[in-house]
Design goal:
Layout (H helix, E strand, L loop, with lengths): L1 H13 L3 E2 L10 E3 L12 H6 L4 E4 L11 E3 L3 H14 L5 E5 L4 H12 L5 E3 L9 H7 L7 E5 L7 H9 L3 E4 L7 H4 L2 H8 L1 H8 L3 E4 L4 H4 L9 E2 L9 E3 L2 E2 L2 E2 L6 E6 L4 E6 L6 H15 L4 H9 L10 E5 L2 E6 L5 H12 L5 E7 L8 H13 L5 E5 L4 H6 L4 E3 L2 H8 L7 E6 L10 H8 L1
Parallel strand pairs: 1-2, 2-3, 3-4, 5-7, 5-8, 6-7, 8-9, 9-10, 17-21, 18-19, 18-21, 19-20
Antiparallel strand pairs: 11-14, 12-13, 14-15, 16-17
Helix pairs in contact: 1-3, 3-5, 4-11, 4-12, 11-12, 13-14
Length: 448
């Protein structure tokens, strides 16, 4: 395939970029006809040409003679991945790889912000972190970029190893390892094996490994590597500490306060972020540590982080409504991220608390147990209301007799729409399939 990829790479250099969606094609894009379970991407090749594509990469021989702008390959996805590998080999820049069970996208964003103090950085857009998204991300990096950041997601063993062959990271970190995607990984041990493929790649290729030693599973990795950088302690390259209190008062979230040592003065400087949740402090530490490895001073990276605001993407989003707060964290959920969110809202403000918690998907054989554990946890808390949504959350409801359970989103929406609350913090958390963010419109009405 190498001669074909070289030819395709030349076409790529002359193009305006890569597209895999004929609906958003731009002039002089190269269109890759990727197919799914229910569609044949080759069927959209002519439409892409009509909209201005300079070339269409197809893998159906029946289309080959229909246009000289159709390039036939054996497999369009493999061709896309091979093109990305070839492009990566022509990029003479460091590449940071990020994976983990929780916090990948937030940590990626924080690293990008921290490094921007000194470099022109490209980072994975959104969550384009799978076997299609990673090659597309690599192909968006151009000669103006000085560092690349590639997020890698996986739901089974072997996927991170494959993504590493495309992105070829020279530095990397695992945010944490928890019980996520158990259905695909088969077991927690499978999750550990799958996520650690990033470290395995870095170790074999003399890359820099950065370890979140707050995570008990990752802590066990330290002895496997010669010179890992830890985010806290003797092997850390930074001096950053969370501030537990200010002026003798408990720090309420959403603001994380932390102290950074100024190496010029020898004194610590207090910093205030726009992030909430103590778990985000680990993400901040990882970002500052990566930036320091690339010679960005802690003070500089901390200042960049402190002006960064969480985007409105259903991840730890705070919506203020007349003395109340909606904490919208409905992008996804697994046992650890659910517990993190529950813990954080407890310290959010003096307001009373309401939980709207939806199913945690892809947990396989441990699903019943983990949903039951969430029920037990919430039963011990002082809450005005606790709403569980979805088939799996019935197990949580059985462990928390004070809660209300709804089989579907619509049932929950109908019930809540008739209620009224004031001065409350409402946590909305669940897996993506439930689309719990839809409830925010009803919540805004009942809070005003």
């Amino acid at each position: 395939m190498q001669p074909l990829i070289k030819h395709l790479y030349q076409k790529f250099k002359e193009s305006s970029g890569i597209s895999t969606d004929s609906r958003t094609i731009k002039k002089d894009n190269i269109f890759f006809c990727l197919s799914g379970d229910n569609f044949d991407g080759n069927d959209y090749a002519q439409d892409a040409l009509n909209k201005g594509a300079s070339l269409c990469v197809i893998d159906n021989p029946e289309y080959a003679k229909k246009s000289e702008k159709f390039l036939l390959v054996k497999d369009t996805l493999v061709a896309l991945q091979e093109l990305a590998k070839y492009h990566r080999d022509n990029l003479n820049i460091p590449m940071i790889g990020i994976t983990g069970s929780n916090g990948k996208t937030t940590t990626k964003n924080l690293i990008e912000v921290a490094l921007s103090a000194k470099y022109n950085v490209y980072a994975t857009e959104g969550n384009f972190n799978n076997h299609i998204g990673v090659p597309l991300s690599v192909l968006k990096i151009n000669d103006s970029h000085e560092i690349g950041i590639i997020e890698m997601g996986a739901s089974s063993v072997g996927e991170i190893a494959d993504l590493c062959q495309i992105a070829k990271p020279s530095c990397g970190l695992i945010t944490n390892i928890s019980k996520a995607h158990i259905k695909g990984f088969k077991s927690f041990e499978g999750v550990v094996r799958g996520k650690s493929e990033l470290f395995d790649y870095l170790n074999k290729n003399n890359g820099q490994i950065i370890i979140n030693n707050y995570d008990s599973t990752l802590l066990n990795f330290i002895k496997r590597f010669d010179n890992p950088i830890l985010i806290e302690g003797d092997k850390s390259n930074i001096d950053v500490k969370i501030s537990e209190s200010k002026d003798g008062l408990k720090l309420f979230e959403p603001n994380i306060f932390f102290r950074v040592k100024n190496h010029d003065t020898g004194l610590y400087e207090e910093k205030k972020t726009k992030l909430f949740g103590r778990y985000n402090f680990e993400n901040i530490l990882m970002a500052i540590s990566v930036a320091k490895f690339f010679k960005v001073d802690e003070i500089e990276s901390a200042e960049k982080i402190c002006i960064w605001d969480m985007p409105s993407n259903n991840r730890s989003q705070v919506i203020k409504v007349v003395g109340s707060n909606i904490i919208l964290d409905a992008y996804n959920a697994n046992p650890q991220s659910m517990k993190n969110a529950i813990e954080s809202i407890q310290n959010f403000s003096d307001n009373d608390k309401i939980f709207i918690l939806g199913d945690m998907n892809e947990l396989g054989s441990i699903s019943k147990h983990e949903h039951s554990e969430i029920g037990k946890l919430t039963s011990k808390l002082r809450l005005i209301e606790c709403f569980f949504v979805g088939d799996k959350m019935e197990y949580a409801h059985k462990m928390n007799k004070k809660s209300k359970w709804f089989k579907t989103y619509d049932e929950m929406h109908e019930s809540i729409a008739n209620m009224s609350f004031q001065n409350v913090d409402i946590l909305v958390k669940g897996s993506r399939s439930l689309r719990l963010e839809r409830i925010q419109t009803a919540l805004k009405k009942i809070l005003t």
